[in-house]
Amino acid sequence: MSLPGKAASKPRGRQPFYRDLSFQVLAGMALGVAVGYWFPKFGINLQPVGDAFIRIIQMLIGPIIFCTVCSGIAGVNDFKKVGRVAIKALFYFEVVTSLALVLGLVVINVLKPGVGMNVDMHGVHSSAVDVYVAKAHHVVTTSEFLLNVIPHTAISAFAGGDVLQVLFFSVLFAFGLAAIGERARPAMDMIDSVSGALFWIIGLTMKIAPLAAFGAIAFTVSKFGFGTLISLGKLILEFYLTCALFILLILWPIAKVNGFSLMRLMRYIGAELLLVIGTSSSETVFPQLIDKLERLGCEKSVVGLVLPTAYTFNHDGTCLYFAAAAVFLAQATNTPMSWHDQLVLLAVLLLTSKGAAGVSGAAIAVLAATLAASNTIPVESIALILGIHKALSSAFVFTNIVGNSVATIVVANWEKALDRTALRSELKTGFRPADTSMSVLKQSTGGSAGS
C-alpha cells in the first residue's frame, strides 16, 4: 500500500510558498482590506467577484453530494453500516453542539460585553431586520423542518440547493443502486466519471479563490468600514475568544482521544479555513473537504454520509453565535434573564439551531426565530448586531469547518473506517495540491482513499 503524498514528495519536494493556496488567499484578503479602506468606492463594486465564486461552488455542491453518497453507500452495499454511521454521527453532533451552546452561554455571562450599553429600543430603527424575521417561519416548528427534508421533486432538491433534501434523495437512490446489485454497475461507472469531472472543475475554480477572497473582503470593508467594528468591538472580541476556547477545550481533547493532532488537521485544511474567513460561506469549501478527508484515510462511504449531514446538523460555531448574540442583546437592552430564562433559551436553541441549514444565510433568521420563540428578548434588538454580523460570521463559519472535519474523522474512527497510516502520513507531510487530480482519478476509477 502506497502512502498518499509519499511518492509525489520524492520527485518534487516542497513547492515555493507563493504557490501555496493558503498564502495566496491570505495575500488576497490583505489586499482586499487595503483596497476597501483606501478606495471604498472601488471596493464596493467588487462584491460580484466574491459572489461569482460562491455561486460556482454552490452550483456543484448538489451533484457532488449525489455522486459521493451514491458511490460510497452503493459501493459498500451494507445497509446496516449506513444506519450505524448515521446514528453515531447524529449522536456526536447533538452532544458537541450542546456543549457549544453551554460554553457560549457561560462565556457571555462571565465577560458581559453588553452590560452598560443601556440601549433604548424606542430609538432603534428595526426595519432592517424585517426581512430576517420574515424568514423565521421556515424554522419555527420541528414538524415543518422534518417535512422540508423531503423535496417536492428530485429535481427541485438540486435546483433549490437544499443540502438536506439532496442528501435525502441521494441516500434513497444509493440504496436503490445497492438493492439491484450488478445491474447498477453501468450507473455506478457513470457516477464515478461524473464525479471525476466535477472535481476537475473544482480544481480549476480554486485557482480564482484568492481573487474571490480579495473581492469579498474589499466589499465588506468598503460597506461597513472599521467604525462599526470598533463600536461593538467587545462582542467581537468575546465571540472570537469563545470560538478559540471551543476549539481548545472541546475539539482539541476530542481529537486527542481519537489519536490525531488538531493543529496539524487545521494546517492541512488551512486554505479552506482562510477561504471561509474571506467569504463567510462554508459552502465554498465543501467539495475540497470531501477530497481532503478521503485523502486523510476516511472511507468514502463515511465521508459521503457524515460530511453533508454535518453541514446540516453540526453547526458548532453557529451555536456559539446564537448563545452569545442572544444574551448580548439581553444585556445591551437591559432585559433581565435569570438562569431559568437562559435554560429555556438553551432548550429552544437545541431545536432551532438544527434548522439553520434550511434557509440560505440563515443565522440571523434563526436567531430571530429563537428570540421570538423564547419571548424574552426583543426581536427588534437584532438590528444592533447587523453591522458586525459579517465579522462574527467569519469566526463561526471557521469554527463550523473545523468542527465538521473533526466530526468526520471521529465517526470514521468509531466505525473502524479510518486508515491511520494515511492519516499520519498526510498530516505529517501536509496537503500537496499537485496530487489532487491523481487522487480524484483514482477515486473515480474505484480506488479507495488511503490505498
From TrEMBL:
Its main location: membrane. Coiled coil: none annotated. This is C4-dicarboxylate transporter DctA. It is a multi-pass membrane protein. It holds the Pfam family SDF. Keywords: Membrane, Symport, Transmembrane, Transmembrane helix, Transport. It comes from Paraburkholderia sabiae. The lineage of its organism: Bacteria, Pseudomonadati, Pseudomonadota, Betaproteobacteria, Burkholderiales. Signal peptide: none annotated. The chain crosses the membrane at residues 21-40, 52-77, 89-111, 163-181, 193-219, 239-257, 343-371, 391-414. The gene is dctA. It comes from the Bacteria. It is found in: Membrane.
